[in-house]
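User: Hi! I'm working on a homework problem where we have to compare a predicted structure to a textbook description. Could you give me the structure for the chain below?
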Amino acid sequence: MSALPVLSTEASADGACAAPGTYDAYGAYGEVAQQAPAQLSPQAEQRVLRDYAPLVKRVVRQLSTQASTVMDREDMEQIGLMGLLQALRRYGEPDAGFGSFAALRVRGAILDELRRQDWRPRSVRQDSHRQRDALRALMRRLGRQPTEAEILQELKLTPQAWLELQQAEVAEEMASFDELIGELSELPSEQRSPEAQLVLTRSLAQALRQLDEREQKVIQLYYEFDASLKEIAAVLDLTEARVSQINKAALRKMRAVLQAD
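Assistant: Happy to help. Predicted structure tokens:
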């Protein structure tokens, strides 16, 4: 798609329902519109949606490698747009901090929809658990972190299958981490204060300090510079699967620090 479609605030003319298995953008807009009184006019909302459409597209580009087999990019963009609208209605008039808040909401909305569709069936999750157990056993046997070649041989996986496994697991870890950050930062506009934002910023800085240098680089490139896993792999001269591993481990460490505070 060349541009993110901006939804009208009016219902579709024919009143047709979305086909089964597709994302009902107009229905979703209606649900969001009823969640809270509008703080901006419809015209102002549409202006903000247009202004922040590039943010939605960046988040979709990041997540598309994990979700492309389940959901196409256009549907992800529509869901991300709904997440952006929810963020706007919760946050109020955008200021310098809105972009970070909105990015969390957009990413969370897409990941929530993926989980709703049960994008990793139980059989796949069970296989994933068995592979993690086998990987831990390999690490104990070697007494070190195994190389990717050793992992592929032990698990009898192709490089592509190993990459897809890591991408799926990092997506789940991202969802958990984003939920935690969302809970910490979710304050109505009238309750937000510089002090509350400072506490959250300091907590994140403390969590980042628990990471090693490479983990910090991965988190910075992914969350601050919106780089995809493929781009990060090229910058750090690693495989995408290894970047996914590092990302997952870093998010897990940060989540543990934030939950302990």
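For your comparison, note the following. Residues 1-38, 187-191 have pLDDT under 50 and may be disordered. The chain has two domains: 1-119, 158-261. Good luck with the assignment!
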